[in-house]
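Task: sequence design from structure.
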């Protein structure tokens, strides 16, 4: 059953003619890696043709929500959490790289001092 958000007049891609449509939300169950995930989808309902259809953007959002819910259910990291960790790791690696460069410079200076004394 559709929960109405608005009524619009727009071309129905199934009927291929301009119709009175209801734009709304509807609960659906999607399979993500074999698991049922319930999502709320945004859909159009053609009142004359008595059928539902989706916009491409709404379809994409529906699957993004389903995969986000799947990752949450499984305890997996979300994309923004992974990005944050990568940024922190890059900063840490950069810091270590700087420290190693400083140590290398110190070692080279000690080597230069030792060789100048030997000569």
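Answer:
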């Amino acid at each position: 059953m559709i929960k109405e958000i608005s009524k619009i007049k727009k071309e129905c891609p199934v009927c291929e003619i301009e119709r009175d449509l209801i734009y709304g939300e509807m609960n659906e169950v999607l399979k993500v890696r074999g698991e049922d995930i319930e999502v709320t989808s945004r859909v159009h309902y053609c009142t004359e043709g008595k059928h539902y259809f989706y916009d491409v953007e709404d379809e994409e959002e529906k699957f993004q929500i389903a995969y986000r819910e799947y990752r949450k259910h499984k305890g997996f990291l979300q994309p923004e959490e992974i990005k944050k960790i990568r940024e922190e790791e890059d900063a840490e690696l950069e810091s270590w790289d700087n420290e190693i460069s400083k140590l290398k410079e110190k070692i080279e200076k000690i080597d230069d001092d030792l060789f100048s004394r030997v000569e």
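The longest helix spans residues 79-118.
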